[in-house]
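Support reply, case 0932

Customer input (verbatim):
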Amino acid sequence: MVEDNIRLLIVEGRSHSGVSDELLRGAAQAIEAYGAEYDVITVSSALQIPTAIALAEDAGQGPVGRRYDGYVALGCVIRGETYHFELVSNETARGLQDLGIGRRLPIGFGVLAVDDEQQAWARARVSEGDRGGAAAKACLETIALKRQLLGRGR
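Our regenerated output:
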């Protein structure tokens, strides 16, 4: 259990809803096992995730917004026949990395970039790859590291 309550925001892109549900299930289980709390917001595609996180972070700095200790980005991008796959995958990752470094935000990366739906399911299933759970754990580890470096314990 955590001494100081941790609250995360999960932002999930819903382009592939079944896979997104499984990623969310894994993330929720990992967060609950840690003893932290979370909220969930959805956007229609992975490319919107960095913007949603930036908006949530800005809102949390205001008088009525909710503050979050970290963020978990979940989504799935499946390769198609056009260059769109590379644009969405690369720009989503870049946007999240820019937020993490530029604004010092703990962000767990659970956005799958796969060739087909079979690969997506293998990575998303809690019983197999559990990338949602791994993303949540990575976020929680980064929060713990940030607190340690700031002298605030876990």
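We compared this against your earlier run and they match. Two observations from our side: DSSP finds five helices and four strands in the chain. The chain has a mean pLDDT of 94. Please reopen the case if you see a mismatch on your end.
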